[in-house]
TrEMBL record:
Residues 512-565 form a coiled coil. Pfam families: KDZ. Keywords: Coiled coil. Residues 134-143 have a biased composition (Basic residues). It comes from the Eukaryota. Residues 86-95 have a biased composition (Acidic residues). This is CxC1-like cysteine cluster associated with KDZ transposases domain-containing protein. It comes from Roridomyces roridus. The keyword Coiled coil applies. Residues 101-128 have a biased composition (Low complexity). Residues 145-155 have a biased composition (Pro residues). Transmembrane segments: none annotated. Residues 82-163, 232-258 are annotated as: Disordered.
Length: 768
């Protein structure tokens, strides 16, 4: 050997590189300079780097293998412990046989995710190829239809408790005897998200090396799932497209996407357009430059990683989320309900119902949107999927993935140029270190969340007392509000068709006006960027201007079409309508509010991106930072101005109603307080269009949830109390799981110590 490194030095550097980005070059250069100052000069500058890096790599791998060896010994003791526990309960013969099998299966699943998934994926058949066309004489025969796509995941094996893999990942979620609670919407909560900053440049492959406790799902299984999803969509899309061309659409009625999904198709389409992640055709990463474009993760509500998945596509395709959910259910008992939080969960639920994905698990799934991304969804979608409105989720926010991406953000530069196997190894090591650090903080986390829930409840109960309404009555009002604001648009009657057409023309005029302002704003910013000689901003704004001009031209064409469709009588009604001013003001206010919502969403996302960049303290992309900061500074005065215009329009609408120049049962829309404009609370007025929509003809009076602010305040307080009660039940269940897990770990460890040295593996270890 040409160099020897003290094991204590290697251990110190190993611990250091778990807290900062690994950098052997910087460490060895500093060490060589330190030795040179002491008079010990190496023959070749930089010669220590490769030797030290190899020593550290194999030392780290050796430590991990030792830990894995003892983990296997402890799992053997666990199997014996579970067998003894089952024997003490003295079950019947059939029940004892089944329990023994379950215990044995639970211990067998404690192996690594990589080996488990690799072995299971080898037994799963990939999607079959279509059958060839048959040839024969005489009359032409119809070619046989291809076999249906086959899910690469088999039916889950029966279990009496979660697999040892899951129990090891999070004792608070899976450590106890997990059973379905009929009074709960979900028994465990997980979140899914993708991170497109964790990319890897294309390069020559490095030597294979796998962490013994890896969190990554094999790429082979990922490819099979992607093929399955594309195959299912391809087969059913062609059939539905053919059917749609043969049917004539009689009207433009909106409708629910599915009987089990109470969000209309129109609202789901708006949500899809709001999120870049929901549009798989958009490019987030350059696949020509990167072979790994992102990683997708599945985490529990305690921010502990369950599985990770490498992504190679340009966009955030849904097969990744489907794969992670399928993998999760392979490790759960068959009656456990799962609460799934995802930033575009409405699109995932629609795809699952439309194409049949997750069909066998759908009754056991409760969908919710992550709290931070909820503001990108339209209001009806928030009513259905927001975890603060959704029953059973407590105060679970679903942002564990975002916190995890931030915790590994210091690895971005290092992993972007690392070898593929080294990259996975470093990530697994970082996650294992984070899990060990957070394991003994789970009780503290539980206590902190209990205090938070208590404070929320006390505040909400005070508000409930102030509103002086019975909770049962408020609950009926809340159900009526959800039913009213989530129902699809009704079919137009002959009586209202003319009114709808006039309102549509007024709305289209407002769209043209807004697009004109947007084009003028982009033109001004483009001139400013040209004066500053900012090439990046100039190119970006030039592209935005081209799109804005095209959108304006399209809107003007649509306006001409709608005005022409009115006819002479319709145009006369439009010009001579008694309530035309009120209708125009209401349409204008609604357009201003929608524009205000769009700007607030963009402001929130840009501010979050800027804060993440500041926390990382990375100066690698100053142009992007400056562009984001300029966009925020330019947009904030625009938001304030729009809010002022909206409030002034609301005052004008109120004046029209007071002077009886408005339809019967019309109510003035509430103004938006500029002091809380940028807080984006879920209960803010900005998300609801109260007073800006047509009143229902069948309603004889304005419902209390719509016209009484004290009722709306009481409903908000009632929902907070409900979530606090749910959170307390969830936290109590997690405390019970931790106690059960700790008692079992303690007993299992005592048993392992008693039998230490008696197993063949221990003897083999000592002889080596």
């Amino acid at each position: 050997p040409s160099v020897a490194v003290d094991v204590r030095v290697l251990d110190m550097v190993r611990r250091l590189f778990l807290r900062v980005a690994p950098n052997n070059t910087a460490y060895t250069e500093a060490y060589e300079e330190f030795l040179d100052e002491l008079g010990f000069s190496l023959e070749h500058h930089g010669a220590l780097r490769r030797l030290f890096a190899a020593s550290l790599e194999w030392y780290t791998h050796l430590r991990n293998q030792v830990e894995y060896f003892f983990d296997q010994e402890l799992e053997s003791a666990r199997e014996q412990y579970l067998t003894e526990q089952a024997a003490e309960e003295q079950p019947s013969d059939d029940e004892g046989t089944q329990r023994g099998r379950s215990s044995s299966h639970a211990s067998s699943t404690s192996s690594t995710s990589h080996s488990r998934s690799s072995s299971s994926s080898s037994t799963r058949s990939s999607s079959p190829t279509p059958a060839p066309h048959s040839k024969g004489k005489g009359k032409r025969k119809r070619s046989p239809s291809p076999e249906p796509a086959q899910n690469p995941f088999p039916d889950p094996k029966p279990r009496t408790r979660p697999s040892e893999y899951l129990r090891k990942r999070c004792p608070a979620c899976f450590g106890g005897e997990l059973r379905h609670d009929p009074s709960s919407t979900a028994d465990v909560f997980v979140c899914v998200d993708a991170c497109f900053t964790q990319k890897r440049h294309k390069s020559q492959p490095d030597a294979p090396k796998t962490h013994p406790d890896t969190h990554f799902i094999p790429d082979e299984l990922s490819a099979q799932m992607e093929e399955y999803v594309e195959r299912v969509r391809g087969d059913q899309t062609s059939k539905r497209a053919k059917k749609a061309t043969c049917e004539e659409v009689e009207d433009e009625d909106d409708h629910y996407a599915h009987p089990n999904l109470h969000v209309s198709e129109a609202n789901l389409d708006v949500c899809e357009e709001s999120f870049t992640a929901a549009d798989e055709r958009r490019t987030k990463s350059n696949t020509q430059q990167f072979d790994i474009t992102a990683i997708m993760g599945l985490l529990c509500r305690h921010d502990r990683v369950l599985w990770l998945l490498n992504m190679r596509s340009a966009g955030e395709k849904q097969f990744g989320a489907l794969l992670l959910v399928e993998e999760l259910f392979q490790h759960l008992p068959e009656d456990v309900q799962v609460g799934l939080l995802y930033d575009i969960v409405c699109q995932l639920a629609r795809s699952a119902l439309k194409w049949g994905f997750l069909e066998r698990y759908f009754p056991r799934l409760a969908f919710a949107v992550a709290v931070f991304h909820a503001f990108g969804h339209v209001w009806p979608c928030q009513l259905v999927f927001h975890p603060r409105y959704r029953e059973g989720f407590g105060f679970t926010n679903g942002e564990g993935c975002e916190r995890f991406w931030h915790s590994i953000s210091h690895l971005i530069a290092h992993l972007r140029i690392s070898g593929s196997h080294h990259r996975l190894y470093v990530l697994d090591a970082q996650i294992k270190h984070a899990d060990e650090a957070s394991l003994f903080k789970l009780a503290e986390w539980n206590h902190r969340r209990s205090l938070h829930s208590k404070a929320k409840r006390v505040e909400a109960e005070d508000e409930l007392e102030d509103c002086d309404y019975a909770v049962s009555w408020l609950r009926k009002q809340w159900k009526a509000q959800v039913a009213s604001q989530t129902k699809p648009v009704a079919r137009m009657t002959k009586k209202s068709a003319s009114e709808k057409a006039i309102a549509s023309v007024l709305a289209q005029r407002q769209v043209v006006s807004v697009l004109k302002e947007k084009k003028a704003e982009i033109e001004a910013n483009l001139l400013d960027a040209a004066d500053r000689s900012n090439t990046d901003d100039t190119l970006l704004l030039a592209s935005d201007l081209k799109k804005a001009r095209a959108a304006l031209a399209k809107a003007r064409t649509e306006l001409k079409r709608k005005e022409g469709a009115l006819g002479v009588d319709g145009r006369n009604k439009l010009n001579n309508k008694t309530q035309a001013k009120f209708l125009e003001l209401r349409v204008s206010a609604l357009a201003l509010k929608k524009r205000l919502r769009d700007l607030l969403r963009a402001h929130k996302f840009e501010r979050e991106a800027l804060e993440r960049n500041s926390r990382r303290q990375q100066g690698s992309d100053p142009n992007l930072r400056d562009h984001t900061l300029d966009a925020i500074k330019r947009r904030r005065p625009k938001i304030v101005k729009l809010n002022r215009q909206y409030n002034e329009t609301c005052d004008k609408i109120a004046a029209e109603i007071k002077s009886k120049r408005a339809p019967r049962r019309a109510i003035p829309p509430p103004k938006i307080d500029p002091k809380i404009l940028f807080q984006l609370d879920i209960a803010d007025t900005v998300w609801q269009d109260i007073g800006l929509e047509d009143p229902e003809e069948e309603e004889k009076e304005v419902p209390p949830w719509l016209g009484d602010e004290s009722v709306r305040k009481g409903i908000r307080a009632m929902l907070v109390v409900d979530r606090a009660n749910e959170e307390d039940r969830i936290l109590e269940k997690e405390r019970r799981s931790l106690r059960i897990w700790f008692a079992e770990e303690w007993s299992m460890l005592e048993l392992a110590i008693q039998h230490a040295g008696t197993s063949p593996a221990c003897g083999l270890w000592r002889s080596n």
